[in-house]
Fold each of these.
Amino acid sequence: MTVVKSKEANKLAPERRTKTVGLIVGSLREHSFNRIIAAAIPELDTSLAFEWIPLADLPLYNEDVDHGDGPEPVRRFREAINRVDGVIIVSPEYNSGIPGVLKNALDWASTPAKTAALRGKPVGLVGATPGVKGTILSQQQIRQTLEAIQARVLPFHKMYVSQVGDKVDAERRTLTDDTTRKYLKRYVQQFILWIDQARALD
């Protein structure tokens, strides 16, 4: 796991503990547009720490091996979710729905039901697509799954990035569109507020 932490975050007073946000990308493709968008997020709020939570090593969900801590990659995945304050999922849309690799990961994070890693965890959703609908259908399905797990998805705020090919430099793997950056920063700020609000629900 990789933790990205700013110098400014280290200067915060002890009573203002730095929040850590997990970043999950719902694509395994190395040059995924959504990975580029996710990589821009740590640049938007230097008061936060970020941890990448990868999905590539997770086996297909199988209840026969889902006992105890589960297989080693699953144990690491669940522990990564448990140690962050909230998770932002940045995912494409495949065939008008949720990518299989992400659904598989959410299934692993949903058990055991009473102590599931995502149960009660604040979650934000971001999606980017070369098309014009901005992963609307995918996010609806992701939200439905998260609500079944009883994760606390940021309400009332949505972040869709349409025509993403025009908004990034694919070779440099950077987000270049200032308007998208502005809205993404606003979304991250709302998500951080949601982490505190979600805690108050406990």
Amino acid sequence: MKTTQRALLVSLLGLSLAAGAAVLKTDPAKSSVSATFKQMNVPVEAKFKKHNIVIDYNAATPDASKATVDIDTASLDLGDADMNKEVAKKEWFNSAQFPKASFASTAIKSAGAGKLTVSGKLTIKGKVADVSFPLAVKTEGKNQVFEGALPIKRLAFNIGEGEWKDTGMVADEVTIKFHVVAAQ
């Protein structure tokens, strides 16, 4: 009798876990991550060409969700090959020593219909910060679409060292924007 009860309990536990979050398959061709900032007071938007985004999500149980994002720092495309090489240098992303910037969620909470609040750890250039930001989520056909923006201060992560600490040339405020399309 105990063996039957254990088997039933294990089965029920497996079903309850399966009903939780589910790893979604992100579509890199339809997804984007960019950084928006001002250079000499002119807005600039640059896209990261390489990123890996893993979202474990179920709309019925958002609190059980998780997300991780890894971005190849050398893949930032400013639209000019020389500028792209410059931001990979030690003064900026130091991509040779810190090839990835990453985010790992610590909590995802419902904030109303189609809205979530995401908290987690953002790591850039070896510096780790606790961050929190709003996230919009909607269903489009078989896909889940996640959109959000995370404002940061670049100098808190040592992005722009030496003469580039001067915020008169490149502003300290940077907004990381993302649009992620994923399917189950």
